[in-house]
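Objective 1.3, modelling of assemblies. Example input:
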Amino acid sequence: MGIVRAFGIYRPQPRKARAAPPMNDYRETLDFLCSALQSQNRKDIELTENTQLVADIGLSSLEVMEFIEKIEDHFDISIPLNILPDVNTIGDLAGKVQELNP
Amino acid sequence: MLFDKFQDMANFQRELAQREVKPFGAVTEQILSATEGVVEGRRVILAGTNNYLGLSYDERCIRAAQEAAARWGTGTTGSRLANGSFAEHEALEHEIADFYGVDHGIVFSTGYAATMGMCSTLAGPGDVILLDADSHASIYAGVTLSGADIIRFKHNDPDNLAVRLRRLGDRADRALIIAEGIYSMYGDIAPLREIAAVKREYGGYLFLDEAHSLGTLGETGRGAAQAAGVEADVDFFAGTFSKSLGAVGGFCVSRHPELETIRFCIRAYIFTASSSPSVIASTREALRIIRAEPALREKLWENAHRLYHGLAGLGLPVGPAPSPVVAVELEDRGATIDCWKALMEAGVYVNLVVPPASPSGNYLLRNSVSAAHSRTQIDAIVAAYAALVENGLTASRTG
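Predicted structure (tokens):
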């Protein structure tokens, strides 16, 4: 139910111990980003490191944030909003994820 | 061309004009009471004003403003750091700090300046800010100016906050955590007991914006932290004079003596003129009334429950619990605009909220309740919504 998500009703959850961070090879990061983006790839274009998130895929600002959250959960990192102005392509984002998750 | 980026907005405004609605910037031609006015040529019940306690039209507040204008003049014509600190400003700073039981307070010219100014100044380059994803635009503006690393946590999700503090490692201790008491769009209340517990576990400083909760929540009206019993965990309280207090302006209070030094570093405080003395005087009187008359808060909540249950009873998707803000969330833009127009024609003014002001991609009919609403007025608002439901205008609702 969309509305429950939107209202953000708080339900306590058991705290998870830190999992070992996934391997972080640039190509693997890129592959993960591309596969994670497939569900939002409405125009069904080919996703490469040069694909632009907004101009090519057409992500809204809300979708960009949802995508960022997916990446954060997967790599167990927090991506500061400050880096977003420098990110246009999937490759740009993969590079930032690498920097944040050495 | 420089103006190309405004084309979408120009198109939206044209569409609204064609539909013959003016939801943004509707002109109030006459104020008849705290809850009634003439807007765009129509006599309407005001149900979208944030005037939670109805004090904007309280005769004691009006008199205080009139007397201050006669005594001090219409404006200070200067910054608080230059010629704009009058005895009124200083008195209000003492009174608002005293209200919160702390020693230090700063008064700002608007609520926007208070949160934007504090958030842009408290943290700087090298620091980390953790803010609730649904934070107000003034908070986003402030953190963007700060130069700190800005990290969002999921709205009202203390577990997500904990995960992000853990990821910070040693930096968690000096992180600035930002939350609001009541969120302005849906009226949902922050889980502050849990947020405070997370802060105790990982460290950091908690900045809480009580803009919509001052005067509406807590045993003495101090807000959501008082209601949750966690005021000792809050490092900085911010808020506004433009909602429960019925005027305009903002504040930050803190138990940290460093606030007195920080004051001299806040650009939104230094490089703007201070509030008109009349505004400060009416705010002081309104604060006195809030402290002396808890019955106003009881009346507000009685009305909030009446409106919430009335709208929920129609099957409309309202939030998870009654609140001074009751929002009806719809998916279809055109239908929501039609609803807004129909409500105006039925004599009810509410707020139309479109993305990105609404946190999701949906559209809101946002109602704010006042202690000054009569039962008859609340029932009239519910009846106007009932007509929308009967006419099928809300059929596209979510949920």
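Residues 120 and 144 of chain B are 7 Å apart (CA to CA).
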